[in-house]
Specification:
The chain has 4 helices and 6 strands. It has 136 residues and is an alpha+beta fold. A 3-stranded antiparallel beta sheet has the order 1-3-2. A 3-stranded mixed beta sheet has the order 5-4-6, with no helix packed on it. It is globular and about 50 Å long.
Length: 136
């Protein structure tokens, strides 16, 4: 089976219609052995850089949201108005460089927390991720 068919099948099994734009965006995100971090704006530049295919910014936003809801991407909030997305959906932590605005992965085992607060009544902790802000 080729990669396009794999993407189409993955979208369909998640309840997402495999539109031409979604398949193109999925190829841009998942056609690599290496995971990466991005904002919707940087993904927009990557997808529309050659000018051959034009995908609207709204379509990219909606697709990234759909992929995040389907569990294919992880959202990382670095400030009150800035979200980064990660193609690595396994539990791990990040360094956030405030100067370059880049995220770098930290293996989950590299951070140990000795005390975690008890969640509110009726809630449980789903996951714990740490973002460490760094600067020059």
């Amino acid at each position: 089976m080729n990669q396009k068919n794999e993407i189409v099948n993955k979208l369909r099994t998640s309840g997402l219609r495999p539109t031409k734009q979604r398949v193109l965006i999925a190829k841009s995100l998942f056609d690599s052995d290496k995971t990466f971090h991005f904002t919707v704006e940087t993904l927009n530049k990557k997808i529309n850089k050659n000018g051959v295919t034009k995908v609207s910014l709204a379509t990219i936003y909606n697709t990234v949201e759909a992929f995040t809801s389907a569990g294919y991407l992880k959202e990382i909030l670095t400030s009150k108005n800035k979200s980064y997305y990660d193609t690595n959906i396994k539990s791990h932590h990040h360094f956030y460089d405030e100067g370059s605005k880049e995220l770098t992965d930290i293996r989950y085992s590299q951070i140990r927390l000795s005390k975690i607060p008890t969640p509110p009544k009726g809630k449980k902790i789903k996951n714990l991720e740490v973002v460490i802000r760094i600067q020059k």
